[in-house]
Amino acid sequence: MGTAKPGHGARATLRSVVAHRHVRFYLHAARRAHAALLARRRHRWLLAGALATAAVLAFIVLPAWATLQRAHAAAQPHLRMALPLPALQDAAADRISDRPVWQAASVQPGQSLAALFAEQGLAADDLARALEADGGRSGLARLHPGQRFEFQRGAHGELLALRYNRDESQQVTLRFDGDSVRVQLRSRPVERMTRMAHGIITDSLFAAGNRAGMSDAMVLELARVFGYDIDFAQDLREGDRFAVVYDAVYRDGEYLHAGNILAAEFVNRGHRYTAFRYVLPDGSAAYFSEDGRPMRKSFLRTPVDFTRISSRFSVARMHPILGRMRAHRGVDYAAPTGTPIYAAGDGVVVFRGRENGYGNFVLIRHNRDISTAYGHLSRFARGLHRGERVHQGEVIGYVGMTGLATGPHLHYEFRVDGVQRDPLTVTLPKPRPLPALQLAAFRRAIAPQRVRLARLDGDTRMARAR
To answer: Which residues pair with 277 in a beta bridge?
Structure first.
C-alpha cells in the first residue's frame, strides 16, 4: 500500500507544534518593542521639561537680572573730562557769541536820510561818511517811502556797517572802520515775467484795475500813458475797456513788484487807443501808438492827479468868494492838499511867488507862443526858482488853497499869445512818427505784443457780452 497524505486534522496539529516551538521568540520580540516605546516616551518628557525650564528663565529670571544690572550701573559715578576745542578763525573779528546783528528801518513818507539816521541815534558824521562813500551812485539823497536800510551796530552803539539796495539787482554794504569806509557790492539778479490784465469800466478806473489784479501804481501809469489823449476825469464812460501787457519783477524767486507796461489798449467812448513801449537806439524808452507816433505830446492834458473838475473854463461865472459875475479863464481840478502838480510841458519858469487871488503861483513859458499857469499852490517844489528850466512831468508844486479859494484845488490855465484858452478843448500839436528805418524796426519789435493785445481784447469782449 502507498504512503497516506496527511488530512485536515494532521495540518492543524502541525501548526500548533510550530507555533509552540516559536512562541518564546515572539514573546521576547514583543517585550523588546514595548521597552523601546517606553524609552522614547521618557525622552520626549525630558525634552519638554527642559524647554519649560528655559521659558521660565527667559520670562522671569532674565528681566530681574537686567533690572539689577541697570540699578548697579546707575549707582556708579560718571566721569567728566574736559576736551580742548580748536580755536575759531579770526575769533577777534567774528565771535559767534557776540556777533553784531542787522537792524532794519524803512523810510517813512516825507522822511529824509538825515532824519532816518537821527531816528537810529547815529551822528551826522556817520551820514556824511556814508554819502561820501556812496558817491551819489545810489541816490541816497533821493529816498522813496518804504525804502529799506539795515544798520549794524557795535557794543557801544557805534555804526559798523550800513546795507541797502543800490537798485533792484545790486546790494551795497558800507563797512565803517575808524575814519575809513569799505564798499562791498553784491549782485542780486532779477527776473522779469510777462503778465496780462484786462477789464471793463463799471464804476472807476481804479476799481476796474484792481479787479484785473493791477496795483494802484500801475493804474496811474496806465492813465499817464494815455493821459495825452484821454481826460480820465470827464471822458471816461461805463463800458470803456482796457487791456495791458506788463512785466512782473522777481528776485530769488520772490515777487517784488510790477515792472513796465509793455503794451496797452484803451477803448474810450468807442475810440481805440494803443500804446507800445519801445527802446530807442540811444537806449531811452518811450511809448508809441500803433502807427509809430509818440504818445508823449507837447503838453499834458491834465497836470495833476485829481478827483474831479470843480469849475470849468467860462467867460461868466459867479465867483464863490467875491459874490459877483467874473470870467473864469482856466479849469479847477479838485484834489487833496499836497497832491503833486506837474509841469505840463518843457519850458522855463518865468514867475514863482505870490500873485493876488492866485495865491502861490507858477508861470512857465514853453515857447514863443504858449505858456501855462498854476495857482493856489500850498507850496513850491524844492529847488524851483525863476529862470530854471523844467521838463514835462516834473513836480513844480503841490495842491493847496492859497489866495481866493474855498477848498484845495489847482487852477490851471493854458495861454496862447498871452490869451487864456480852454485847456480841455485846445488843439494840441500832433507829434511826428518815427523815421522810416526806425518805424520798420518798431513794427517788428511790437508784433508779439500786438498778438497778446488782440487776444486780451477778445477776452474782454467776451466778458462784456456775458
So the answer is: 287
How far, in Å, CA of 232 to CA of 242, rounded?
13
- Residues 88-135 have pLDDT tens digits of 455 444 444 456 788 888 888 888 888 888 888 888 888 888 888 777
- pLDDT per residue as tens digits for the range 222-240: 998 998 888 787 788 999 9
78 by DSSP, 3-state: which?
Answer: coil
Helix (H, G, I), strand (E, B) or coil at 184: strand
Dist. CA 257–CA 145, nearest whole Å: 15
What integer pLDDT is reported at residue 94 of this predicted model? 46
Distance between CA 313 and CA 420 in Å, rounded?
9
SS3 content of the chain, % helix, strand, coil (to 5): 30, 35, 40
DSSP state at residue 101: P
Return the CATH fold of 191-297+433-465: Nuclear Transport Factor 2; Chain: A, (3.10.450)
Apex CA 181: angle with CA 179 and CA 187, to 5°?
A: 175
Residues 106 and 115 sit within 8 Å (Cβ to Cβ): no
Distance of CA 134 to the CA centre of its chain: 26
Name which of 312, 346, 351 is nearest 329 in CA terms.
312
Nine-digit cell at 442? 518798431
Q: What is the pLDDT of residues 357-391, one digit of tens each?
A: 899 999 999 999 999 999 999 999 999 999 999 99
Q: How far apart are CA 348 and CA 371, in angstroms?
A: 9
Query: Nine-digit cell at 449?
Result: 505784443
- 102-187 and 308-421 have identical folds: no
361 three-class SS: strand
Look up residue 300 and give its DSSP letter: -
**CATH class for domain 308-421?**
mainly beta
Burial of residue 253 (number of CB atoms within 10 Å: 0-12, 13-18, 19+): exposed
Q: What span, in angstroms and rounded, lies between the C-alpha atoms of 110 and 144?
A: 8
Please state, as a whole number, how many other Cβ atoms lie within 10 Å of the Cβ of residue 412.
Answer: 23
The string of pLDDT tens digits covering residues 25-83 is: 555 555 665 555 556 666 666 666 766 666 655 555 555 555 555 555 555 555 565 55
Give the cell for residue 397: 508844486
Domain made up of 102-187: CATH architecture? Roll (3.10)
Burial class (CB in 10 A: 0-12, 13-18, 19+), 266: buried
